[in-house]
Amino acid sequence: MWPDCRKPFHWLKNTSGKFNPGNTKILAVPSTYNFFCFSRKSCVFMIKPRVTGLISGFALILLTALLMFSCTPQSCQEETEVLIGASFYRSGTGRIAAPDSVTVYGAGKEGSYIYKKAAGQQVIFLPPDASSDYCSFVIGINGIYDTLTFSYSTYPHLLSKECGYTFYYTTTGCTFTANIIDTVIIRNNRVTNRNEENIRIFF
Amino acid sequence: MKRTFAFSFSILLQLFMFSASGADTIAFPLKIRAGADLFGPAYRIAGKNNISFEGLLIIDRDTSFSWVVSAGYQKYFFSQYNYEYSAKGLFFKAGTEINAISPLVSRGKYFAGAGLKYAVSFYTYEAPFISSENYWGEVNSSIGRISRAAHFIEVSPGIRTEVFKNIMIGWSVHLRLLIYSGTGRNLRPVYIPGYGNGTKSFSPGLSYYLIWSIPYKTEKINR
User: How far is A92 from chain B (nearest CA, A)?
Assistant: First the structure.
């Protein structure tokens, strides 16, 4: 009668000290075990390395994933300022042109300049007032001043968990005094943190 | 004649061996497992503001394949210098789980594999305080309570083992892919209960499970 070698622990226990006493033949071993005989009287079963390797591999993958996605706080990387981009164009030629000097401040905020006699500015960026539906800027182009008023609707926008919320705007209109400014065209009424061209000022 | 005899003997021998091996089977208990995630309550006890409870039910279909359903509740609060955010909601997940360990080794006691689940989170969120500052000064505002449903897929590789009879412990890493947050681009949720960071399309997580197993059927498998 062949012993049932496919029950490894049972077989080993029953034959402890007398491994394979009758030199009996081995029929088969489970596919998940390796069967090692060091001599005619000493044999052991071991779980195949591929099984232990599989479990170890899983544990390794899980630990790696944990390390990769740990809950380390991150800093704010996004652009948080939301600005109206205004480009200067010459009325006669229709070409983009930088005035010799540009001065900009918010209406009612004299002395708090956004630009002060800035040279070479083809594009300026104007911050809307989130607490109001409109805001006005005093713009001095080559020493001649005009007032530019924007009306808009405001809505909150989540930048990221780290940065929090900011306010975006949809421009609904633009009025201006015409001392040096000839025309204002709204090119893009969505004002976001991309700081792209929203209006064109012809002077 | 000699060849025919040898062939017939060979066939008989193979039939004998096949029937012998067919009789040599082991009983694999298919189980219904009910468990709870201990990581959420432990996180709460550790002094964090967030509350999370999740229970799961695993039903073995065969020796390697199981059906999984889970449900949970999560409450989240986050605050920093320029905003406060809170969210709470119920989430439900359903899918499958595959055990990569051979049934001969696992015998219903060990699991090293992965699950794939589809999940829906029914949640409400609000931002009671928002602050933004620019040239014109500081503006304070708020976002009222909004109710939404988010959909996501969860892949969960993990390991579990039986520590006492029919009691298992183990842990899983959750890799979640957001399909739809339920909101527009502007008011994306900072956090979705059951998912995680709602501003990212990928969110990882971790669970530590305590599971009670109830054998309901025995399947015989060949060794």
Answer: 33
Chain A contact probe: residue of B173, B175, B176, B202 with most A CBs at under 10 A: B173
CB contacts, 8 Å: B112 with chain A:
54-55, 58
Q: Could you report the per-residue pLDDT of B106-158, keeping only the tens digit for each? A: 888 899 999 999 999 999 999 999 999 889 999 999 999 999 999 999 999 99
Amino acid at A4: D
Partner residue opposite A32 with nearest CB, options B21, B102, B112: B102
Structure tokens given for B125: 């969120």
Record the pTM: 0.74
ipTM comes to 0.77
- Rounded Cα gap, residues A75 and B1, in angstroms: 87
Q: Do B82 and A165 touch (CB under 8 A)?
A: yes
Q: Could you give all domains of chain B from N- to C-terminal order, each with its CATH number?
A: 26-222 (2.40.160)
Residue A86 CA, distance from chain mean position? 27
Q: Which residues contact B94 (CB under 8 A, 6 or more apart)?
A: B67, B68, B69, B70, B117, B118, B119
Chain B, nearest residue to A65 by Cα: B173
SS3 B155: strand
Q: What was the pLDDT predicted at A179?
A: 92
Q: Please say if the pLDDT value at position A16 is more than 50.
A: no
